[in-house]
Amino acid sequence: MRRVLRALGVLLILTAAVSCTEPSGADDAKSGELLRHAEPPPYERILPAPAAVRPGGAGYRLVPGTVIRTGTGSEEVRQIGERLAEQLRGPSGLPLPVVDGGAGDGILLRLDESAAELAEEGYRLESTAAAVTLTARTPAGLFYAGQTLRQLVPASGAGEVPGGTVADRPRFAYRGAMIDIARHYFTVPQVKRYLDQLAQYKINKLHVHLTDDQGWRLAVDSWPRLAEYGGVGGVGGGPGGHWTKDDYRELVEYAAERYVEVVPEIDMPGHTNAALASYPELNCDGKAPDRYTGIKVGFSSLCVSKEVTYEFVEDVLRELAALTPGRYLHIGGDEAHATPAADYAAFMKRAQEAVAGQGKTVVAWHQLAAAEPAPGAVLQWWGHDKTPAAERDRVAAAAKAGHRLILSPADRAYLDMKYDKDTALGLAWAGHVPVRRSYAWDPGTHLAGVPESAVLGVEAPLWTETIATRADLELMAFPRVLGIAELGWSPAAKLDWAAYSQRLASHGPRLTAQDIGYFRAPDVPWP
Ligand code: TNX
């Protein structure tokens, strides 16, 4: 039986090798028909593709006596080992106790701060007949080594970690996803679930869009009506809701345990109807508008000429900064169509000063380039192929002036764009975004005049005007968010649609095993 299986394996490797030589330039419609699923060999299935893999030699068999060794001295490494054990126990059905001892066989976790060849979040994984050894310079690197190991262990049943070595490191420091909990409210447990799904693919930032016209979702002690009144409702008039400060802290802590930094966004000066409805004094005419349950954008603005507006901004950002260990505060700044340009610039100047006053770094949507980005401010590009040249030029000029960019091109990275004309959910203002289109671009060369050194990373935003449930979220995010994860992590030389689509297809059963309701996109050769 073993020999038959091995022979089959060789066959699969051969067919995979043949399929990988297929030209990746074939056009979108055709490629779905051309490729058939050919299960890649194990080290080619790792997603995001590692910087370097060298399969070979005898592998490590997981057996009932297999232990996870975390050495002594680091409580954090112990925690990583415990969490990895939890993740492997389900699929393998093995007890996998976590023990202190550093030497012996089993799965070894080694933090080696002197391993200069390993990057900040990099790691090495070696699988031999004697042991699987995970080595990293930082705990984050060890965590990622563990996530790679998960993908080398069969999706169900014990079995073997095939022999070989992975030497890996990320291309970009910022590998993000965003969830909009303002249009439709999502609870902390729902967001934790999404975060778990993402962290296993080495995404390390979770941007939470906390406020918009339709809802204010975070409690602020100094302005309590924001959440109490402004948090009620949402698109379509559902019940809405908001997070208490403890809810938010709980998410931040959960994220940190998975090496994810939370980037909170308070969108200003537009997208503020929920705040304006909660406090009449924030309106220039002193009158509070009704709460809003539609999906129009660009109609609301804070009152730029009133001093109370800045008291509000400073109070909110101070309380948010106190809750947020991460370095970034996102202040929105998009689609402020109801704010005249000069007012916009004046407002963004003070809002950026308020962020700096809290010792944080500004992130804003790329419209900030039309005003004056503060030194060190990060811009998030959400343009698309038809964005006017003048707007692109402003963003390129900001990059030239030293601002780093997060790339979220709407016609590639927006998870709320429909896959195709038959997608029931989603919007289509940036066109349809099939899986191939969302993957087939290179963040290092995507924007003219923006060199790779100016790119901090990538992010896949999920706007929720049309997305109300966990099932909606999973259908739109998966599998496209995995492609964005690969663009954020893998070296440019590894980006190739033919290989990626086979790799992604092999993750179908893993997604199913985790009960992730992904879209079985027609351009992917699912098994
Ligand atoms: C544009 S992207 C927006 C959001 C919408 C989204 C819908 C951006 C910075 N603003 O307010 O939700 O389109 O796709």
Describe the structure concisely:
This protein is an alpha/beta fold and 527 residues long.
Strand order within the widest beta sheet: 10-11-14-15-16-17-18-19
Largest sheet: 8 strands, parallel, barrel
Low-pLDDT segments, ≥5 res: 1-32
**How many beta-strand segments?**
19
Shape by Cα distribution: globular
Return the average pLDDT rounded to an integer.
93
The number of domains is 2
What fraction of residues sit in β-strands? 15-25%
Main CATH class of the largest domain: Alpha Beta
CATH superfamily of the largest domain: Glycosidases
The helix content is 25-40%
Number of helices: 16
Radius of gyration in whole Å, from Cα? 24 Å
End-to-end CA span: 23 Å
Identify the CATH architecture of the largest domain.
Alpha-Beta Barrel
> Which small-molecule species are bound to the chains here?
ligand TNX
GO molecular function: beta-N-acetylhexosaminidase activity
Domain Glycoside hydrolase family 20 catalytic: 172-491
Signal peptide: 1-26
Keywords: Glycosidase, Hydrolase, Signal
What are the defining features of this structure?
eight-stranded parallel beta barrel, HEX_bac_N, TIM Barrel, 16 helices, binds ligand TNX, alpha/beta, disordered N terminus, Chitobiase, domain 2, beta-N-acetylhexosaminidase activity, 527 residues
